[in-house]
Amino acid sequence: MIERSNQGGEQRRLEQHTPTKHNKTMENNELIGLVAGTLTTVSFVPQVLKTWKSRSAKDISLGMFLMFSLGVALWLIYGIGISSMPVILANAITLVLAIGIILMKVTFK
Amino acid sequence: MIERSNQGGEQRRLEQHTPTKHNKTMENNELIGLVAGTLTTVSFVPQVLKTWKSRSAKDISLGMFLMFSLGVALWLIYGIGISSMPVILANAITLVLAIGIILMKVTFK
Lengths: 109, 109
Description:
Two copies of one chain form a homodimer.
Chain A: H1 7-17, H2 21-42, H3 45-54, H4 62-81, H5 85-108
Helix pairs in contact in A: 2-5, 3-5, 4-5
């Protein structure tokens, strides 16, 4: 979209669209966080699949998993508190997976 | 826009020196993050101890653990980038534990 405006408008438009060092750093952080979250969340999926397929969860400690899930829930609250999209996304997905494992543990054993 | 009245100046000065709601929220976030990190990190310790005691890590997938460790390393970099003490602490400790498991996996198998 081409904006036909006076010089003042041009200036503002440039300021808005020029990536500042600060913005670039924020974008890089966000990207690193999203890759980090993808890796730690994806590495958790095989456990979920294994438990689902084997219909067995006797080697999984319910206490440890409840502790882990509470921790993930608090990470989610922390992520919302500091407005960190990577922390929110990663922990929301991990929480769903962790609750899934707890439900399987309670159902299958 | 910028207010140039005397009242505006007083207002700003007061806002700077009074402990604000914003600071309290930041402290609460930090606390929630530290509890979250303690729970998720502590729930990881039994795996390390189990592997150490049994001298066996055949059920642990090296690929998954390398992926997880890389993710944790990136979370650590992310934590440094956004200056989040809970993210830095939790992932620094988890990274040490995860590298410990990888070393055991490579040594014991």
